[in-house]
Design brief:
There is one protein chain. The protein is globular. The longest helix is centred in the N-terminal third of the chain and has 25 residues. It is built from 5 helices and 32 strands. The strands form 4 sheets. Strands 13, 15, 16, 18, 20, 21, 22, 23, 24, 25, 26 and 27 form a 12-stranded antiparallel β-sheet that branches. The chain is mostly beta strands and 484 residues long.
Length: 484
């Protein structure tokens, strides 16, 4: 080989290629950052956070997980818009999910179903994926495409969903507006998401908030109402009560009120608050309203001596009960069946069987998580959106005729399954690392094996304008640092 060519390769091409690789790896100028592991050797950027071991089988190195979930920390120094997760695993569980840790305290994960045994066994007709990567299973051969299905505005009660929401335009027949607001003396803790129906009448919502000051930090309270398309109808905030230390002294009762007339339809009300904020009562003229995903019934310490019992009515595939205090240990009746909450800070899962489930809570010091909607009276209940798919028996019991899934395409590789999920990283804390979570549930959720994991993080490519913005931020940070 010519000495000049050799010199060019060794002294120019190789260092330049290494520099390009390093810049791409560290700064992701293309907007793509990747991390892979086959578990054959420790990864420099992927760290296993949970109890797990490594086994070798048929020439493969597998991660053997003893519990229902495993968390892996992906080290990176940038902020991304979305994550593409791809994994190969083997398990006897009914459902496998993948996602990211959205919040560390208290823990909150943002997950997607990547394998569902009952969905794989569903014999209903399946449409081809549409442009949004959605697939429709239908009991009867009614629609040729998802576009035809969407135009038909099928009621939410007849549709079950996987990795997506189905919320058709809703107009309740026989709806009669309530003349006067109704008062609910129920204490709620922390953030709440409420869907309510307006028939076009004058509407009112009032919440009485109290800062319990059990934890350090300022506790602001936000309230906003959003329309079907996400536009903000109303927004208001309450500043902290002035006690930012965890003194344990309950603050004064303060009101948040909204009154107005809304066109007929479904609206979303969000109460933004920490778990230090208790909503001691609420008043509303809404005849139909439901809470989504969680109802956290607060204790009445610092407010009243006696805690009245509470009943909830709703629809979900399953729910779990947990109390944060020893005083909240109790026996809850779900569909009339006793469910003992024996210890504080321990979850007690419950499967539901009725189309409208009743939960009777003797002592309101209980967090109820569910994959559906609940409210305080049976006549206030309505279904603003479809709930998740559980199994064929559940679908037939509730009269569902359609299953709509998005970003769902598992396939078998021998006795393993490969699945993927696209997760939005909006509002996710990515400071220094991102925690990826794989979880299994239902069936035999014993030890399971993961063959490989591929994480692709995506953001906008680095162009002149983004480079200028990054340099501006860095220069400002340096100026502030040296000016102190």
């Amino acid at each position: 080989m010519n000495s000049r060519v050799l010199f060019f390769i060794l002294c120019v091409a190789v260092p330049l290629a290494a520099l390009v690789w390093l810049v791409d790896k560290e700064f992701a100028p293309r907007g793509i950052w990747e991390a892979k592991t086959g578990f054959a050797k420790p990864s420099n950027v992927i760290r296993i956070l949970d109890d797990a071991s490594f086994i070798k089988e048929a020439g493969k190195h597998l991660l053997s997980v003893p519990g229902q979930s495993v968390s892996l920390e992906i080290e990176n120094s940038h902020t991304f818009l979305s994550a593409r997760l791809v994994a190969l695993w083997r398990t006897n569980a009914d459902v496998v999910e993948m996602g990211v840790l959205a919040r560390k305290d208290p823990p909150l994960t943002k997950m997607k179903v990547v394998y569902h045994r009952a969905l794989e066994a569903l014999s209903w007709k399946k449409t081809a994926p549409d442009s949004e990567d959605r697939v429709l299973w239908q009991k009867n051969d009614t629609f040729q495409t998802i576009q035809d299905f969407s135009r038909a505005a099928i009621p939410a009660e007849k549709v079950l969903a996987v990795n997506t929401e189905y919320a058709p335009p809703l107009e309740l027949e026989g709806y009669t507006p309530r003349r006067d607001p109704r008062r609910y003396d129920v204490s709620l803790r922390g953030p709440q998401t409420i869907f309510f129906y307006s028939g076009g009448e004058e509407m009112q919502w009032k919440f009485v908030a109290q800062d319990m000051n059990r934890h350090d930090g300022a506790d602001e309270v936000g309230m906003r109402i959003l329309g079907r398309d996400g536009h903000i109808v109303f927004e208001d905030h309450l500043a902290d009560d002035g006690e930012i230390w965890g003194s344990g002294r309950p603050g004064k009762l303060r009101e948040m009120i909204w009154k107005g007339v809304l066109p007929a339809g479904v609206y979303r009300l969000e109460l933004q608050a920490s778990d230090d904020i208790f909503f001691r009562r609420m008043e509303t003229a809404a005849q139909k309203f439901v809470f989504q995903y969680v109802v956290y019934l607060a204790d009445t310490s610092g407010f009243r001596a006696v805690s009245p019992a509470v009943k909830l009515y709703g629809r979900a595939n399953s729910l779990s009960l947990r109390t944060p205090h020893a005083e909240g240990v109790q026996t809850v009746a779900v569909e009339g069946i006793p469910v003992a909450v024996l210890k504080a800070n321990q979850s007690y899962p419950v499967e539901t069987r009725e189309s409208l489930t009743e939960i009777a809570v003797p002592t309101p010091d209980l967090k109820i998580d569910f994959d559906g909607f609940f409210t305080f009276s049976s006549d206030a209940f309505f279904l603003p959106k479809s709930i998740g798919f559980s199994d064929l028996e559940h679908a037939e019991r509730f009269g569902a005729e359609y299953v709509l899934a998005k970003d769902y395409h598992p396939f078998r590789v021998g006795d393993f399954v490969r699945g993927s999920a696209e997760i939005s990283l909006k509002d996710i804390d990515q400071t220094g690392s991102l925690v990826v979570v794989m979880a299994q549930k239902g069936g035999k959720t014993d030890r399971w094996q993961v063959d490989d994991l591929h994480v692709t993080l995506l953001r906008d490519p680095l162009d002149f304008f983004r480079l200028r913005e990054m340099l501006s931020v860095r220069m400002k940070a340096l100026f502030q640092r040296f000016s102190l």
